[in-house]
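Duplicate of earlier report; RINT1-like protein MAG2 input re-posted below.
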Amino acid sequence: MDAIKPLPHVSSFSASVFTFLDDRFRDAADLSQSSGLVSELETEISELNQRLAELNRQLESGLASYASFSDRIGGLLIGVNAKLADLSSSTSASDGGKEEETTEHVAGEELPSLAKEVAQVESVRAYAETALKLDTLVGDIEDAVMSSLNKNLRTSRSSGFEEVRLHAIKTLQKTEEILSLVAKRHPRWGRLVSAVDHRVDRALAMLRPQAIADYRALLTSLGWPPQLSNLTSSSLDSKSDDVQNPLFNMEGNLKSQYCGNFHALCSLQGLQLQRKSRQLGSHKGENVLFHQPLWAVEELVNPLIVASQRHFAKWSEKPEFIFALVYKITRDYVDSMDELLQPLVDKAKLAGYSCREEWVSAMVSSLSLYLVKEIFPTYVGQLNEPDLSSEAKVSLLHLIDLMISFDKRVQSLVSQSGILSLQEDGNLLRISSLSVFCDRPDWLDIWAEIELDERLVKLKAEMDNDRNWTVKVQDELISTSNIYRPPIVSSILLQHLSSIIERSKSVPAIYLRARFLRLAASPTIQKFLDSLLLRCQEAEGLTALTENNDLIKVSTSINAGHYIESVLEEWCEDVFFLEMGTGQDSSQEAPGLENFTEPSEGIFGEEFEKLEKFRQEWINKLSVVVLRGFDARTREYIKNRKQWQEKRDKEWTVSRALVGALDYLQGKTSIIEENLNKADFTATWRSLASEIDKLFFNSILMANVKFSDDGVERFREDMEVLYGVFRAWCVRPEGFFPKLSEGLTLLKMKEKQVKEGLSRGEKWLHENGVRHLNEAEAKKIAKSRVFSLV
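Output:
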């Protein structure tokens, strides 16, 4: 039987041994477990001996590998030295011409091969040193990871445990720096990098879960999450002054442990981001690197949300309480993110991360996940039930109103830091509850459909009110209102469109905003355009637009359409709409949007085309209607071919048969001028002048009529009166009657001048200002002239 060895003296015990014994033997009753402790220690010693033996074998293998590399390098160096010696001896033994010949031979053949061999030796040496260095670092990492998982070291919660993990992280960072340098400078060493990555990945696969588990356990010991049982619906909207925040209550060793764990998690995450950047950067570039939530902050949020869901279940029919609770939690603890945790993130050199932003983002993401799983399916399902359909629509719109309001409030919490640019879609997606539509665009379609139905019901009631078509818009803030003189119903439409556009701005993705506007705003514009077209068609069908009231009705509709067109054009110059046409946020990667394409001419491109087509069509009809009435009243005037050879009545400055037609023309154009906007009225009277010019030119000047001197004077006076009708809108109205004015120019010329001039052809016509008549038309007009014999 082996003699029992005496115990060592107490004074020789280290501090760690005292701590271990104090933990194991707190009172006399624990002495009964000493045999079990001995067995446990013997087992652990055996495992450590096995691990030590394995490490020794690895060390021997590494040394043998290094020795092999050294032998190979030594052999290469010996060969190089031998060749250098041969080169030296051959150089010294040569003379004269032989010396020159040997030098050329060495320079041409020996030196390049020698340089190549030296470079190979240097490359092998560098590879061997790098491989040995990486093998040593990875071995240290594996040892540190295994030590950090040692249950005795972990249960003692000694400073050695934290130091071991910190040493593992620092070694990982150093290894990553070397790998990045190798990947950049030596791309052919890919197998070495891949082998090291494989071993590092195995180490991280053990280190990260354990670090998270330790962090969770530490949060539990801190009393996180704080109690939510004392919350009431009345206290959700008020900020509590006595919020229990365990993060602010930490002291001494507990605070040091928490800060160490938080810093370790941040460092691990930063390391992983560096590795992903290196591994993916050479293949797909930086665009594939997505933003990862901050692990340490996520672990703070998850238990809070789990505790909150007990309240969510009671408020399924009162979602405003759910949003209020999430906002209250987010707001009450957001300050601790800046004051306590942000310095730790900065210390871990985790670039691009704001704890305030990550806290808000994690809370919003958790809420969005709950909405997707529990709230939206219930609300959408009720839409298919006939008895609940109308109430379900109201409930869904109310839910979306709550989401929009919630997003604005939490985004204000983030913007207070002055760091985040909320205009970037990636940031908006992470702090918007409306991001639920990114994965479920069919829910967005349902929202747009309900929004459209509600707007159309309200708009129809406004369009059916005749007073809204007679009262003009008087808004000094709208610069175009005075130009287009639109009815108030067009302003009502713009209010509805503005509301739809404002709601679409809350959607965090550009392609979804465009889709929402195409589904909700575009049909609203189309409905208004249909109403304009129907009013014009009714006026045309009843009286063929012969009555003044019908002209006013059509003019008002044109004004409304042109006003809407101009305002939409002004809106589309805004950055909000320009982004939709740049393709910045492609919908091709979004599920359920394969059949959705954005028109190249803009979000409202089709509506612009339809409004312009409507306006041009009915402007043309206005001029045609007036021309038709004018033509009917000038038939006797045109048929009287003899009047151009009779003596003119000096008491009349205009032909009697033309007076009624001119009065009709002036009356109708005045009605249109009073009611139609200036731009479209200008197009109307110019079109009308052009058609009258063609009418009189073809019916009189080209009708083989004979003009005497008095006839020419009468025709001139009649045309002057006709021009006078249009003189109110331009300085030289005859310029809009080119054929008539140039025909008169030819009629007023002397016989000799005309005959000699026409013999010279078109050149003479152009010299005399006749540019709209061809030579045949000029000759025909000249033949219609009857000159007196005097």
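The chain has a mean pLDDT of 83.

Merging into the original ticket.
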